[in-house]
Amino acid sequence: MSLDHASKIVKHQTLTRDAFLGGRLIVSQPGNGFRAGLDSVLLGAAVRETATALLDLGCGVGTAGLVAMALNPPLDAALIDSDPEATALAALNLAENGLAERGRVLPLDVTAPGRLRAEAGLPADHFSAVIANPPYFDPGAGTRAAPAREAARHMGPELLDRWVKTAATHAAPGGEVIFIHAAASLGPLLGAFEARFGAVTILPLGPRAGEPATRILVRGTKGSRAPTRLLASRALHGASGRDFVPEFEAIFRGDGRLHW
């Protein structure tokens, strides 16, 4: 997507410009609706520093991919999303953060047939890291989004499995696939990962020590036969207040990455 095309779309939106990684990244995103936040930063910071080619599935405005690229200077990235407004903003954000030469944005459905993905320029067995922050809410529960935004907010187990299948197709042998998701969806996500990857690693994240996990990071390695590991839950905040514990404060400041 060209920057000229992006500008024609985004100029009709009410946007905010938000700082990430302590101001290393400035991300333009819609003032209303889904907005990138901590999950996107954690996902981008979870990518191994040895990764050289990244695929961000359902990239939205590109925040997770931008974080991974900022933390990994050699990393090139392909960002895909089916929402043309989101991909327009992702292209704009790449350019405005000086990352356009290392990234490309494709307006493409994650679950499009493999032939269409290949024709769009996504090779199979290629990316050393594939990441995704898929929609959290089950279509049978909770408040539904407006029709124009529903696809970006609701996902059932079958669709989630198709996202994991797409990730498996495009990951290189030995490459990592990382999803961040709601802890309540661990069952279907783990099943989809274990059917396709080895060395599956689960990192639960909770608000505070002793409280139930609300988010999970799941990583698998294509071609590995190593067993699944469940790591100890990590707390984002201290015992009281909203301050982050040092590990996560460093990540959100842009001074560290997620080691797991």
Give the tally of β-strands.
11
Strand fraction equals 25-35%
Order of helices and strands: HEEHEHEHEHEHEHEEEEH
Distance between the termini: 34 Å
Cα shape = globular
Tell me the name of the CATH class: Alpha Beta
Assign the CATH topology.
Answer: Rossmann fold
**What is the CATH architecture term?**
3-Layer(aba) Sandwich
Q: Give me the CATH superfamily.
A: Vaccinia Virus protein VP39
Query: What oligomeric state best describes the polypeptide chains here?
Result: single chain
Task: Give the low-confidence spans.
Answer: 138-153
Structure explained in plain terms:
The chain is built from eight helices and eleven strands. The protein is of the alpha/beta class and 260 residues long. The protein has a single domain, classed as Vaccinia Virus protein VP39 (Rossmann fold), CATH 3.40.50.150. The strands form two sheets. Strands 3, 4, 5, 6, 7, 8, 9, 10 and 11 form a nine-stranded mixed beta sheet that branches. The protein has a two-stranded antiparallel sheet with strand order 1-2. The radius of gyration is 17 Å and the shape is globular.
